[in-house]
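Ticket #4471: structure export looks truncated?
Reporter: QA, pipeline team
Priority: medium

Steps to reproduce: submit the single chain below to the structure queue and open the exported record.
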Amino acid sequence: MFNDLECADCNKYPDALNKQSTQAATPLRIGFLTERLLLGFGVDLVVDEQASRLAARGHDVTVFTTKTDALYQRTGYRVVTLPQALNTSLDPFSPHFAAPALAFLEQQPVDLWVIHSPPFYDWAQYLAAPAILWEHGTPDGHFFTGKLSRSVERMKQHRYHDIYGKLRPQDRIGAISDYIRKDLPPAVQHQAVTIHNGGDHYGAASADDVAAFRQKYGIPPAARSILWVGRIALEDDWQPYKGLQEMFAAADWLRRNHPEVKMVVVGKAEDAAKAALLERGIIPALNLPREEMPAAYRSADLYLNTSHWEGFNLALVEAQYQATPVLAYDIGAHPEVVAHLQSGVLVPEGGDMLAELDRLLSDDAALRELAAGALAHARRFNWDKNARELEQLALSIAPDPASTPVAAFRPARLPYRLWRYRNVADQLGWWFLARTGVKALFRKLS
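Actual output as written to the record:
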């Protein structure tokens, strides 16, 4: 292992259970809107970190979502599951759900909304308080095929133009990288602010944690290892830009050229994926509990990322935080989160990543130097900084508590439903809308 560095400095940054508690000068009542709050999803982790740290800074924070699990019910903020609060089983993406949900949200004492995912972007114009719409980015449609390609492009264009084109003067867009902010329509870029994600949510792994992880997965203490993190979808891969097949090719190449190096894959997967990984000589560490993730990163000598599109790439920052250098393509936001030749190596897209992997595996001194640089570079990305910048943005647009609240525009049910139906048709096609309506009619008649 080449990243066995002293990590006392890591303690300068609190882990996910020890958040900064500096009190805000002007406490706000902040409501988050997000589709889900579940373990294993990047957006959900961002919501949890922002909400919990803003709560620790003295703000009154509530997350409104459509589904959650027990992990996110042990935090310093409230969680309201909208279908339960409304006592309905309606699809949260349906126009029928939006009208009662908006009426419910109108009654909530909220000074500012932070919106993180569909379907809630569409709701911003109907909320009385100012809103910050968080832009995590969407891959271009060319990464996909057929109907999915067209659907992705429609949804992106809908958000960029139909939604952001109707931003009110008091609203803002929070972009997770300069790459994402600069991709926004020019007309709304003046309302957008870049706020980078943090990477310190897991805390630093100890030497004992690393030793236990290696023993559990059969990695000899002195063996070098390469880590890849991502979802393993052998069929119906809905994130083809993540480079799963390139990871398989890298594993085959390692087995032929560096058989002494262990390839470890961490990610969410069905049981069938384990056999496919073992067949290629890959060590599967699938569906890891949260507490094992720091050791998974820190036990590796190099983190390999084969993605061809990323609006931020949280895993790159997570790896560097554990003093693990990274190898990735020079695309998207990667130049913002990786210091090329200091904390990792960025290969030009279309370049020979395997040649660079071969060079690094043959240069122990380079790996040691990159490991030290990774730990130093990762200090730029921490959730307390993220929360402070979000707080400053929120305070800059939140109304004066002494002022009279502005009444929300509540859409009439029929016009609002027609508007939502049109948006759904624009994004997914009229055939999808008609088929959904027929299914709903049969359910009602049965």
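Status: closed, not a bug. The export was complete when the record was re-opened. Leaving a note from the reviewer for reference: The chain has two domains: 14-198+386-442, 207-380.
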